[in-house]
């Protein structure tokens, strides 16, 4: 039995991915609504080659909340060009300042977009296989 000949597999995968995208988006929106803004300072960075074509940059960002300093780690795309000593706007959870993210669409919505994209691809494949 050839798995590609079963269109229901594509439908199931697409539903799982699309529901995951919706769930992830709702979590991101809840985080944004329930968070506060601050300015963080990049204290260190490093680059890791993930493939021959792309590099992932890792940064440590220091934020100050209520006179306490926190170090937050984040992976960023190499095109964002964040250098040590530069400032970046951060969103942090009021209840847990260690839960902080860089306030940019790429940082906040990239994972949601990837889930949605692949869910849509599998859904389109399902309809083409019918």
Describe the structure.
With 130 residues, the chain is α+β, with helices and mostly antiparallel strands. The protein has one domain. The chain has helices at 7-33, 105-129; strands at 35-49, 55-65, 68-77, 87-93, 100-102. The chain has a five-stranded antiparallel sheet with strand order 3-2-1-4-5. A hairpin with a 6-residue loop joins strand 4 and strand 5. Helix 1 (7-33) runs antiparallel to helix 2. The model has no long low-confidence stretch (mean pLDDT 87).
What gap, in angstroms, lies between the N and C termini? 17 Å
What structural class do helix, strand and pairing data support? alpha+beta
SSE ordering: HEEEEEH
**What are the low-pLDDT stretches, counting only 5+ consecutive residues below 50?**
none
The outline comes out as elongated
Number of beta strands:
5
Largest sheet data? 5 strands, antiparallel
What's the domain count? 1
Strand arrangement in the largest pleated sheet: 3-2-1-4-5
Average pLDDT for all residues: 87
Helical amount among residues, as a percent range? 40-55%
**How large is the radius of gyration?**
19 Å
| Tally of DSSP helical segments | 2
Q: Hey, roughly how much beta strand do the residues contain?
A: 35-45%
